[in-house]
Amino acid sequence: MNAPAPSLDLAPALVVLPGPRAGVADEGGARPVRPPNARDLFEAGPVLVAHAGMTARRLGLNTPPRSPRIFDVLELFAFVRPAAFCAPSAAGLALALGLPEPRGAA
Fold it and tell me: Which residues contact 48 (CB under 8 A, 6 or more apart)?
């Protein structure tokens, strides 16, 4: 008997750089998004971000309280590797995990 392949419904990953320039990665792949669309995505959730407070400030929003709709990967990194240094950004997280430094928001 063939069982259907399991699928994961993952929250889209959102990165907002100064400017602001933004990018999102979801089931459709990674692509740039306009700041108003990034703001809508951040406010509607669920969304995966690196440093929710900084992301909100770059979008012109107040720092959000902890929420089940905002997944901050820096909090997860600090929980899993409490003694490891990581700069509080998507690029810092990539470098701490031994990945190449990302180029651009997308």
Answer: 10, 11, 12, 13, 14, 71, 73
Secondary structure (3-state) at 96? helix
Residue 84 token pair: 């490891």
In this prediction the pTM is 0.79
Identify the pLDDT of residue 6: 61
pLDDT for residue 5: 59
Which residue is listed with tokens 């306009």? 34
Amino acid identity of residue 64, one-letter, is P
Using 50, 70 and 90 to split pLDDT, how confident is the model at 37? very high
Which CA distances in Å does 65 have to 51, 77, 105? 12, 19, 24
